[in-house]
């Protein structure tokens, strides 16, 4: 029996499940709409009830944390008693998650999000090159940073934010910041992240699992729409994506970073600059892998299924 924790509409999860079905393996998929009852939980034995079916915890061979959370109770009317019961369930939920991570597992529920700023500091300590950056709320310091690097970008600090304003959905992609932009800023503004612009040869997305990196080269610099941020996808003429092999010394430094973060899978974004330096950008422990797997024929969905088996 394999337990998979994911979100309801995650297509990559479904692709892995198809391989598990092909191999004839039993699995249970938990998502944000799943309610789990703990019939019994002690130091030696756990019995869960999912959709009316009892599951012996000892028969679970592996656990894949993809994303999201299941629940131990349905949402009830809010009052002081129910709030207390919810808190009781949250502590039991954390213990159950911890015990799931004692199984052979891929991913970790603790890392729905990582602090990209802290990860960047750790990456530099592991010997990886990282772009210079500044977080500031004032025009004068930003102008000084712009003068130092000449070409700079601004990007979100965490996540990929989307905002609904009236009937429009708006996103926040990476953008070039010109001197005239800064001059037009207010003297003080909300704390924002600015980073030196790296003139890239290619972008690299690398998925890591079972001590192996599966990397792809994204030729985003060949299209003006995607040069600054390849996520500004050109749906008409998509970027070319090809298999790529990171240098062994870069992979070893990334593995050291994995150990510091205590993660065993995820997606890594890097840049190979025009002057042949590898710059670490970020790691996503949940990680999208379909855009690496398909174009490069890595069949990562099968590899994940085999790892769970």
UniProtKB/TrEMBL annotation:
Keywords per UniProt: ATP-binding, Nucleotide-binding
Single GO MF descriptor: ribosomal S6-glutamic acid ligase activity
Keyword Cell membrane: no
SUPFAM superfamilies: Glutathione synthetase ATP-binding domain-like
InterPro entries: ATP-grasp (IPR011761), GRASP_w_spasm (IPR026455)
Domain ATP-grasp: residue ranges: 120-309
Superkingdom of origin: Bacteria
Key word Iron-sulfur present: no
Gene Ontology biological-process entries: SOS response
Gene Ontology cellular component annotations, sorted alphabetically: cytoplasm
PANTHER family: BETA-CITRYLGLUTAMATE SYNTHASE B-RELATED, RIBOSOMAL PROTEIN S6 MODIFICATION PROTEIN
NCBIfam families (UniProt xref): GRASP_w_spasm
Record-given protein name: ATP-GRASP peptide maturase, grasp-with-spasm system
Source taxonomy: Bacteria, Pseudomonadati, Bacteroidota, Flavobacteriia, Flavobacteriales
């Amino acid at each position: 029996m394999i337990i998979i924790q994911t979100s309801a509409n995650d297509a990559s999860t479904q692709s892995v499940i198809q391989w598990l079905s092909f191999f004839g393996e039993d699995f249970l998929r938990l998502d944000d709409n799943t309610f789990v009852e703990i019939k019994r939980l002690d130091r030696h034995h756990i019995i869960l009830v999912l959709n009316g079916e009892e599951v012996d915890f000892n028969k679970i061979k592996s656990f894949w944390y993809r994303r999201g959370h299941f629940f131990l109770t349905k949402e009830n009317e809010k009052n002081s008693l129910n709030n207390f019961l919810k808190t009781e369930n949250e502590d039991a939920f954390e213990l159950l998650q911890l015990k799931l991570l004692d199984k052979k597992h891929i991913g970790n529920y603790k890392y729905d999000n990582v602090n990209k700023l802290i990860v960047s500091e750790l990456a530099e300590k592991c010997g990886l090159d990282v772009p210079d950056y500044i977080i500031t709320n004032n025009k004068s310091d930003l102008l000084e940073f712009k003068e130092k690097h000449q070409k700079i970008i601004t990007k979100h600090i965490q996540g990929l934010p989307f905002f609904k304003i009236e009937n429009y959905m708006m996103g926040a992609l990476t953008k070039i910041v010109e001197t005239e932009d800064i001059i037009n800023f207010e003297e003080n503004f909300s704390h924002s992240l600015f980073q030196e612009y790296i003139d890239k040869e290619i972008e690299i997305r690398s998925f890591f699992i079972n001590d192996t990196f599966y990397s792809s080269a994204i030729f985003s610099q060949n299209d003006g729409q995607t040069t600054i941020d390849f996520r500004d996808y050109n749906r008409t003429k998509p970027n070319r994506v090809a298999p790529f092999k990171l240098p062994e010394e870069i992979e070893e430094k990334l593995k050291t970073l994995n150990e510091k973060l205590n993660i065993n899978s995820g997606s890594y974004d890097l840049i190979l600059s025009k002057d042949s330096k590898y710059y670490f950008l970020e790691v996503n422990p949940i990680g999208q892998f379909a855009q690496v797997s398909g174009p490069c024929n890595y069949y990562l969905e099968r590899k994940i299924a085999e790892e769970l088996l």
